[in-house]
Structures are given as C-alpha cells and as structure tokens.
Amino acid sequence: MPDFQAQIPAHDGDDFGVYIARPKTTPAPAVIVIQEIFGVNQELRAKCDALAELGYVAIAPDLFWRIAEKGLELNPENEDELQRAFDLYGEFDAEKGIKDLKSTLAFARDHEDVISDSVGCVGFCLGGFLAFAMAVESDVDAAVSYYGVSIPSMLDKKDKITKPLLMHIAEKDQFVSAEEQTQMQDALGDHAQVTMYTYEGEDHAFARFISLDASETEGAGGLANSRTRDFFANTLKPKAEAA
User: Fold this and answer.
1) Among residues 80, 110, 173, 213, which one is catalytic?
2) Taking the CB of residue 105, how many other CB atoms lie within 10 A of it?
C-alpha cells in the first residue's frame, strides 16, 4: 500500500490519499501524476520520484478510492490483478475523478512547497484521458497525455483548451482505433495549444516501466519522456527563471 503523505477532502465528503515526492529545493513547480487503471502502484510512484529528481513536486492522487480499498495498487503483469484493473475501469466514474483532480490541483496550489501558478499534470492510459480532461475542464498550467483512451468523446470541447497540452499517441494502440486517432488529428492538428506526436508501430503503454528521468532516452518510450521533460521545463518554469 502506498505511503500517502496527505489526505485531500473530496467534493462529496470523505477524503482521498495522495503520494507526494519532493525535490531537494522548494518551493518548486508541481506535476500531478495521474494513474493508469492500476492505482498508485510502484510504477506510478517511481514516476513521481523521477519527477522529484528533476526538480518538481510530484503529487499522485488515489482515484479509485470510491470503488476499491483505499491505497489499492495493482501489477499489470499479474493476470488476476490485470483483470481486476479492467473491472475497476468499468466502474470508474470519470466525472467524479475529474473533480478529485481539481481538488488535487487546488491542494497543490495551496501547498507551501509549490509555486502556485506553475502546476501541470501528466497521465497515462485512463490518466491520459483525465489529463486531457484537465486541459479542457480546469486551469492547470500544462498537461501531458500518454496514450489516452476515449479522448474523442471530449473533442467537442477543444476550444476550452487555453494552456499547453502535449499528447503522445501510439499508432498501433489496441485501445485507441485508427479512426479515433484520425478524429484527434483532424480536431487538434492545428490547435495553437496542442502538440501531438504519433509513435509508429507502438502499442498502448509503450512508456510503461521507463523512467521519466534523464537516464533512459532510447526507443519510443524514452523519446516520449524526453519530450515530456522538455515540455515541462518550458511550461512550468518558476517566474524568477522565466524572467
């Protein structure tokens, strides 16, 4: 079970835990790290720790707390746990999840270790969809979506995207059809705030188990992560550095 460093009040009562990794120097920009369907598991915490090494306060909220035991973490390489993850995905209420992320954003902006006007988010799979949703539904300062599912369902709200959004798309994604990818390209290809990269021949989750730090740069996952690092370095700079 993750060691949650804080609890955040939910909009509808109760509270949910967040894993926080802090850099050596604060206050610093923050990145909300949005889970796949496996909870705040070891892989997600490792991504938080890597972001902290890069100088960000990384915050990962537990988004399955309503439908599973708090602090659930699942291993995608275990067949039984993988099936449970898919079952939980079927039960997940995205609208409530977005509200929890907005609560996490408010928490981050009010945190003593965080530069309040320099908070981004990054998400993977389900989290990739939720990162896109945050770009649409919130004033998060920058967002990164890795192989987000179901994004075409929100393309009618594309004009609400007013802050930078980076999208990593797997060409052979088994969960995002070629038709859906075309829909995204057609709707967002000329959007001033959106940058999209498609990774030829890659399937869903091609960046899983690849660190977000600078130690791995080979292959599609390493390339995507290097682009994410550059993106956050350019969009989440502290005001003093940007001047």
Assistant:
1) 173
2) 22
How far are the Cα atoms of 86, 130, 202 from residue 92, in angstroms, in the given order?
A: 10, 12, 26
Say if residues 36 and 125 touch (Cβ distance below 8 Å): yes
Is 204 assigned a catalytic role? yes
Whole-prediction pTM: 0.96
CATH of 6-242, one of 3.40.50.1820, 3.30.190.20, 1.10.1670.10, 3.40.1260.10: 3.40.50.1820
- pLDDT digits over 67-121, tens only? 999 999 999 999 999 999 999 999 999 999 999 999 999 999 999 999 999 999 9
| Residue 239: count of CB within 10 angstroms of its CB | 9
Tokens of 71: 């602090």
- How far is Cα 230 from Cα 233, in angstroms, rounded to an integer? 5
CB 25 within 8 A of CB 114: no
Considering the candidates 62, 100, 168, 204, report the single residue annotated as catalytic: 204
Q: Is 168 a known active-site residue?
A: no
For the chain, the domains span 6-242
